[in-house]
Amino acid sequence: MNLPKVFITNTSRETMTHRKRNPGSACLSGCTVRILRLFLASLAFATSLILAVFPAGADGSSKAGVQNTLSAKEKSGGWKLLFDGKTTSGWRGFRKPDFPSECWAVKDGILKRVKQPDSKREECGDIVTLNQYDNFEFQLEWKIEPGGNSGVKYLVLENRPSTWEQAYLDHHLISLKESGKTEPPERLTPDRWKHMSMSFELQLIDDTKNADARSSPDRITGALYDLMAPRQRSVLSLTDFNTARIVVRGPQIEHWINGAKVVEFERGGAELQKLIAGSKFKHLDGFGTFAKGHIALQDHNSEVWFKNIKIRELAGQ
Fold first, then answer.
1. Concatenated DSSP letters for the chain?
2. Alpha carbon 66 to chain centroid distance?
């Protein structure tokens, strides 16, 4: 049998000789691919960390773009702005005819709580929507100073039982005694809570540095304040805005933080009644029974920033 001749050129011989002398060159192409894959994996991991620190909106969209506006889709879906980014139209002080401009301000498209000296903090108070709501979906973006404390209250009534302020004072006096702390007598009056709304609250707080948040899991961000802890701790940013969302459908209520549902409960349900009975609200006659009310942004004398505040009313349940 005649076998075919194999012709080996000088170039082929040189290449084979080079590979024998330099075995590492044989894997150059493969090594490059592996390095590229490692780089892409590292890039994906870094991106996930950035998104955790600077979370997107509750609907998963980016926060970049025009602020305090509604898209065509949102408008057709029934959403309405509660803050136009320029004025305080649609808001006023709780139990006040006007907006407390000495304590709250609008600047650069942000509604901000301006921190006050302790001697004047009772003069400020929460701010509330002009309208009242029963079945709704509410959403905003928020940021808070390190160690700060605030919240969004809903189903808020201004003509609440007259005994509530005294009941709150009595609870506060007990807390002071237990902690060994003291306060000036002029601050220990029922009027101290006259401009503080009292209702269900979606807690917004610095979970790490605020002492109240460290005291109990039902006082961290997303909690139904002093009643129900969130399902999990939220990944929050103190340098960028976070999102908060409240959904009320009849007695069914949900809290959402940065796109994740963290609390769900039934207003008037047996579980909630048990929680109220063991909370600071137990002496507030009728607490948690109101089916319609204002939405309030809490004044806790912390600097807090709000934007993209919007609401859509849902069909009656």
1. -PPPP----HHHHHHHHHHHH-GGGGGHHHHHHHHHHHHHHHHHHHHHHHHHHS---TTS--S-S--S---HHHHHTT-EES--SS--TTEEETT-SS--TTTEEEETTEEEEPP--GGGGGGT--EEESS-BSSEEEEEEEEE-TT-EEEEEEEE-SS--TTHHHHHHHHHHHHHHHHT----GGG-SGGGGTTS--SEEEEEE-TTT-HHHHH-GGGSTTSBTTTB--SS-----SSS-EEEEEEEETTEEEEEETTEEEEEEETT-HHHHHHHHTSTTTTSTTTT--SSBEEEE---SS-EEEEEEEEEEPPP-
2. 20
**Strand pairing partners for 138?**
246, 311
CB neighbour class for 54 (10 Å; exposed up to 12, middle 13-18, buried from 19):
middle
Residue 15 region, left (φ>0) first, then alpha (ψ -120 to 50), else beta? alpha
Taking the C-alpha atoms of residue 62 and residue 65, their distance in angstroms, rounded to an integer, is 8
| Strand partners of residue 307 | 141
Q: Residue 32: exposed, middle, or buried by beta-carbon count in 10 A (0-12, 13-18, 19+)?
A: exposed
Show the tokens assigned to 148.
Answer: 């700060």
pLDDT along the chain (317 residues), means of 10: 45 46 50 62 52 42 74 97 97 96 94 76 84 98 96 97 91 90 89 91 96 95 98 90 98 98 97 96 94 96 96 85
pTM summary value: 0.78
